[in-house]
Amino acid sequence: MIRTGVTVVCRNTALKVTSRYLRMSLARRSNVSDQTVNTSFVANLFRGEIHFGQVFPYPEAADEEQKEYIRSLAEPVQRFFSERYDPAESERLGRPPEAVLDELWETGGYALMIPEEYGGLNMSNTGYATMCSVVGAVDLGLAVVLGAHQSIGWKGILLYGSEEQKRKYLPMVSTGRTVAAFALTEPGSGSDASSIRTRAVKSECGKYYILNGSKLWITGGGIADLFTVFAKTEVTDSRTGQKKDKVTAFIVERGFGGVTSGPPEDKMGIRCTNTTEVYFDDVRIPVENVLGGEGNGFKVAMNILNNGRFGMAGTMAGIMSTCITKAVEHANSRVQFGKHLKEFGNVQEKLARMTTLQYVTQSMGYMVAGNMDNGSKDYHLEAAISKIFSSEAAWIVCDEAIQILGGNGFMRPTGLEKILRDLRIYRIFEGANDVLRLFVALSGIKYAGSHLKELQLAFKHPTANLGLIFKEGSRRVARTFGVGGTDLGSFVVEPLRNSAHLCAESIDSFALAVETLLFKYGKRIVDEQFLLIRLADSAIDIYAMVNVLSRATRAARINLPSAEQEVLMAKAWCVHAHSRVQGNLKQINKRIYLESFSTMSQIAKNVCENGGVVHKLPLEINL
Ligand code: MYA
Q1: Residue 23's CB: how many other CB atoms inside 10 A?
Q2: How many of the other CB atoms lie within 10 Å of CB of 92?
């Protein structure tokens, strides 16, 4: 049973646990008036303040020289895989063939973003997204072998390491054939990352820590020789002198002794990856191996994850493109009822949706990576959205490809069956989508809430705050009466004006809905997961709309050969996304839906109490 996700056997209990932590977190956060400027498009969306800087124009994160560098690395890798790699063989072996791994080590495939001085290829985030796509298109298992090493395994050292730590460890993980792993999850701590129990105690001499505990489902756990480990440590608050347990991150070498691994897990997919438990028994860690400072481990863990999530969008865009190619080959060649499949409206709708989902995913991946490359620090929500969206889009695309291929799609040799199995974990690991949705909604609400607090304060001293009050007043009038609201028309090319209008309308309805929820529920909103999930879904759809509008506009303005197709996809996307947003926001407000959420809650309680479905066969016999 996978326990990192919220959608575990008894969804109800898991949601309660998450809710408790999120409630505590919101209560803590609401005491803090967040005055810092946040440039995140999504965070500001919750305030109804639209910061276009991150989204228009579509980021140009690579100049000609960088593009050439990315191409020079990506092309040979793509060729190598198409000529010499068989994903089915890796699955059979339970690991990629040694010759492939050798090649990857030798060509820098394990160190894409490590600076050259430490032995890596010094790729940008945009370059990394491209490599993710190339590898993802071939084998999602191999993507995890490489991704767990670099998206999270050594990423902490790159982001938080001291110069000494970087000099010592980065060459090992880039050219020294040392596999790195990220050890956060524990038997009792999946999505609820701050509840870990692994513990490190400082020695009396103060020179080392003694680490004890165990970690679960660690990718590369049986083959890694270097771990980023998160453990509770006792930390003294420098202001109050009080002692408190806080998470600290450590760089742990297997060679320290006391590090052992369990047998490889028997998994549904990504079977060429090594996943094991890892045990730490009295491991002596030198104090120099604390990563990012004592007590800062939770932020270190979250930021490593934030920093790597866009890679999943790249990976998913790659595999979606593979699925679409297979579906198109079949639609072009298969004749049924006297016609090629591609001539049937039903198949056309599927292909259009699939290719648009791939386009949105790719646009998000490169938007987030591009903003990171351009120096943005406020990308956490966007990175989480790209992870949620891409892993779900890829699932739909693969499933629809199988449907188009019919019986052929179900057969192993077509390759789609393996892709579907491999894809399943992507919605669970690197932050389960359910919890990331709550993260997006609650972080946004926290940000919106701090703004409302500012406003309340402003009303206490109205004469000193006339500007703020007037600005807010006009915005509310605009939102409420649907006039003079957000205008995106000037950001897009002419054929996309109507689509931009749909997006703007969604933005305004969203801001109004957030405000209404905040007034209605206040802090209690953290318990309203039916509503929070719908809010997150609306934010995801709006962010997706903005992405495609921005990218298709760029394509049209620079006359890309694909511009016409990109504009078509953006148009189609905005119509359906707009209608989903309106639907979701309606559900947040209307009594009939709110009642249906209580009904669903009751149904779930009944089934949990009963240990399964409550109803019997409609035959009045007991089976
Ligand atoms: S690795 C394991 C993955 N595990 C997770 O992702 C854990 C998920 N859980 C969480 O993220 C957190 O516990 C949640 C919060 C979100 C539930 N960024 O009180 P809090 C701040 C920045 O809300 P909790 C794996 O799967 C927050 O603002 N800050 O915390 C292998 C607050 O700050 P302040 C954040 O309720 C994958 C403080 O922390 C974030 O306990 C293999 C406390 O917050 C954040 N995100 O939980 C992958 N969250 O106090 C391979 C919270 O200042 C990939 N905070 O207000 C392959 C890809 C392809 C590669 C291809 C290669 C070529």
Answers
A1: 16
A2: 11
Q: Per the confidence metrics, is the pTM higher than 0.85? A: yes
Sign of the torsion formed by the C-alpha atoms of 70, 76, 80 and 82: positive
CA 446 vs CA 44, 64, 301: distances in Å: 11, 40, 21
CATH topology of domain 310-429: Butyryl-CoA Dehydrogenase, subunit A; domain 3 (1.20.140)
Using most ligand atoms within 8 A of CB, pick from 131, 439, 525 the residue to mutate for ligand 1.
Answer: 439
| Phi, psi angles (nearest 5°) of residue 267 | -110, 160
Cα gap 617→607, rounded to integer Å: 16
* Domain 180-305 in CATH 1.10.10.10: no
pLDDT value of residue 12 = 34
pLDDT computed for residue 29 by the predictor: 36
* 2-37+461-600 and 310-429 agree in CATH topology: yes
CA dist list (Å): 142 to 94, 101, 398, 429: 11, 10, 18, 16
Enumerate the domain spans of the chain.
2-37+461-600, 64-174, 180-305, 310-429
The span from the CA of 63 to the CA of 428, in Å, is 35
**Of 277, 392, 430, 528, which one is the catalytic site residue?**
430
Rg (CA), the chain: 25
Q: What is the pLDDT of residue 448?
A: 93
Low-confidence ranges of the chain (pLDDT < 50): 1-35
CATH superfamily ID and name for 2-37+461-600 = Butyryl-CoA Dehydrogenase, subunit A, domain 3 (1.20.140.10)
Q: Which fold has domain 64-174?
A: Butyryl-Coa Dehydrogenase, subunit A; domain 1 (1.10.540)
Q: Which residue of 25, 438, 445 sits with most ligand 1 atoms within 8 Å of its CB, as the best mutation to test the pocket?
A: 25
The H-or-E segment that residue 238 falls in is none
